[in-house]
Automatic annotation (TrEMBL):
It catalyses: Release of N-terminal amino acids, preferentially methionine, from peptides and arylamides. Cotranslationally removes the N-terminal methionine from nascent proteins. The N-terminal methionine is often cleaved when the second residue in the primary sequence is small and uncharged (Met-Ala-, Cys, Gly, Pro, Ser, Thr, or Val). Belongs to the peptidase M24A family. Methionine aminopeptidase type 1 subfamily. It comes from Cryptotermes secundus. GO terms for biological process: proteolysis. It holds the Pfam family Peptidase_M24. A divalent metal cation 1 binds at D165, D176, E302. Keywords: Aminopeptidase, Hydrolase, Metal-binding, Protease. Coiled coil: none annotated. The gene is Metap1d. Residues 82-309 form the Peptidase M24 domain. This is Methionine aminopeptidase.
Length: 320
């Protein structure tokens, strides 16, 4: 997910940045009723987990700064595609596996521990760890947290919705996917948001093929979101991926005129974020956690896809 993963930030979308959390959380404003759930505030973040020497680590493990990606969308070779399939298959396996641990009372830090262990046990590196200083091995975004939530000691509560975003670095290539999970009894508004977001991703993937314009992905997401009564959060984009975590093309999930067409051999993520209310978000003082300005809930789903001669292959599809 590109934004302040060292990428583009558009001022019109990021209206305000709060450094005084007490003032932010205690603000009072009138907002529509978004349903039954609790607003999430950041908790205590423990130290990042260690990585054994035997694990192949990306260069940013030591420096926190990734090398630049390619200047243009990469056309991958068969050898590169094979490695992408392996890393994406592992990412999906980990995402499906961690879902079994998500329940009322579980902390997001415990989710981080599970993800980290799964990566290490499969001889892979959890890509988010120390990427531009991110302190944990996975992103966990609950309720009003739109993206890049940092795992902490907050216990998941009955009625929460949570996005778990997993990326792994295996044999020199990153695989990336995310999904929503329902915690306990989620209200109908939350379920509707999650369903529409997943449908918007499916709709966007369905048009992918050689010769298709990248910008049409955003049009498809917008159509699904608006029909369901939700808003696209436009400042979060998908991205090219490979031996680099983030690179071209940028994949916008809103109406846009981003240039370029898809070509056989391109690999990129599609990962729309839909919101119940306003598209406006703020980034908290940790430099990562993005929350909605109106405290409405958001949802996100993500796949990594490969453009093939006759269409598209979802590299992070559930193989179960």
């Amino acid at each position: 997910m590109k934004l302040f993963f060292g990428q583009k930030v558009t001022k019109s979308y990021l209206q305000r940045r709060y450094f005084n959390l007490d003032d932010f959380w205690e603000r009072s404003w009138k907002r529509r009723d978004f349903g039954s759930y609790n607003i999430v505030k950041p908790g205590f973040v423990s130290e990042g987990r260690s990585v054994p020497e035997r694990i192949n680590r990306p260069s940013y493990f030591d420096t926190s700064m990734p090398p630049p990606g390619p200047d243009e969308p990469e056309i991958k070779t068969e050898a590169q595609i094979k490695k992408m399939r392996d890393s994406c298959r592992l990412a999906r396996f980990m995402l499906d596996s961690v879902g079994k641990y998500i329940k009322v009372g579980c902390t997001t830090d415990e989710i981080d521990a599970v993800v980290h262990s799964l990566a290490i046990n499969n001889n892979a590196y959890p890509s988010p760890l120390n990427y531009r200083g991110f302190p944990k091995s996975v992103c966990t975004s609950v309720n009003n947290v739109a993206c890049h939530g940092i795992p902490d000691d907050r216990c998941l509560e009955d009625g929460d919705i949570i996005n778990v975003d997993i990326t792994v670095y295996l044999n020199g290539f990153h695989g990336d996917c995310s999904a929503m999970f329902l915690v306990g009894e989620v209200d109908k508004d939350g379920k509707a948001l999650v369903k529409a977001t997943e449908q918007s991703l499916e709709r966007a993937i369905s048009i992918c093929r050689p010769g298709e314009f990248f910008c049409n992905i955003g049009s498809e997401v917008e159509l699904v979101a608006r029909k369901a009564g939700f808003t696209v959060v436009p400042c979060f984009t998908g991205h090219g991926i490979g031996s680099y975590f983030h690179g071209p093309p940028d994949i916008y999930h809103c109406y846009n005129n981003y240039p370029g067409k898809m070509k056989t051999g391109m690999v990129f993520t599609i990962e729309p974020v839909l919101a119940q209310g306003s598209h406006e978000i703020v980034i908290l003082e940790d430099g990562w956690t993005a929350v909605t300005l109106d405290n409405g809930r958001t949802a996100q789903f993500e796949h990594t896809v490969l453009i093939t001669d006759d269409g598209v292959e979802i590299l992070t599809n559930n193989v179960a």
